[in-house]
Amino acid sequence: MAHIAIPIPSTPGKQEIEIEVSINGQKQQLHYRIELFYWDECDVPVIDRAECIRHMLQQYDQDWTLYYIGSPTQKFVPITFVKRDDLHIQQKLMTGK
Known about the structure:
The protein is an alpha+beta fold. 23% of the residues lie in helices and 37% in strands.
């Protein structure tokens, strides 16, 4: 799938992003969510941060699916989600089916 980079202003907390695109005359609306997960909010004792991310994602809203895990800092990791239904639309556009 081709990618277009769009700068998103960095603000604390959850960011809801709606994008309407037109590809070959076909309009699609896509919904993304970027959320910062703070290491000190991890509920379980963990050996590494990957285990903490896995645990946090297990409890996440099931209407959203993991899209991208950003570069972690010492305090948090930014994670991008896409609406589950929108992911199916993206896959159909990509495969032409």
